[in-house]
Amino acid sequence: MKSYDYCIIGGGPAGIGVLDRLLHEGQKNVMLFEGRDELLYTVSFMPFIKQTSAMFRSAVSGTGFKTHLLETKRPESVISLGSRLIGTDFENHRIIINDNGRENLTVSYRNLVIATGGVQAVYGRRLLPGFRGAGTFSTYQTAEMLTRYDFIPGEKLAIIGESSYAEETRRIAQEKGIETILFSNSSFESAVPYAEVTGLEGDEHISGIRIRTPENKNQYFAIDSLATDGEFIMEHKMRELLGIEWDIDRWQAGTDTTQRHPDFTDVYIAGDAWKPNFNFLNQYENGYNLAGRIL
Prior knowledge:
The strands form 6 sheets. Strands 1, 2, 5, 6, 7, 8 and 20 form a 7-stranded mixed beta sheet that branches. The protein has a 4-stranded parallel beta sheet with strand order 10-16-11-12. The chain folds into 2 domains: 182 residues, FAD/NAD(P)-binding domain; 103 residues, FAD/NAD(P)-binding domain (3-Layer(bba) Sandwich), CATH 3.50.50. The protein is elongated, with a radius of gyration of 21 Å. It has 6 helices and 20 strands. The chain is α/β, with parallel strands linked by helices.
């Protein structure tokens, strides 16, 4: 059984931030486990909107930040790709990692940081009336499919959202030649402001959307696909593995400000798994600063 001083679950911005701080401080007995076969998967779908933060003053897109981080030299021995967390034994400071679908490995740790990403719950806080069926997606799903799988959701795509994912999805779709309309009250160029979505229409497939404008007028738009922002939340399976609740009021994992697991002092939650944030630079900093507090 392999043993590490620090185990990190997740190779997104927060997980990489934890790893970089630990390596910067001279820690060597460290391992980052990432379930996919690449690091920083999610920021691949953020090529347009540029972010800044306290640590990164120059604006950079998600894909640009991914390139920047991957150019940083790290020992190959501290990163394990295709390694997914499937079991926990916090009482004995152990986790079970599935290695590329081949075998399950028991790993012991002195400190464990969970830095997995969030999943977008489309109809969590945003309740859309009417139709639920073919042609409806989350903004994250749509950006992922357009970017990674060349998936075309339809010829007339409506997007509803205030987040940078909504604007990213519109611009990615437009690059693919899809007619796109963005309903948003954010300051995105050419967005259609709305007071309320009053209805979605369709039989087996979505065919239209009705809105009430800020001027209290009703408008109808014919569409054949819909992408909408939801709320990012730690996925249900991960919450089960961690034995942790989701704090709906604060919209974050049920930890205090130290990001420590409520029942185990050597388990921490970082990044989107702790509190979702569309600013990937802030999530990197969250992991980097958390590692400094753990040391």
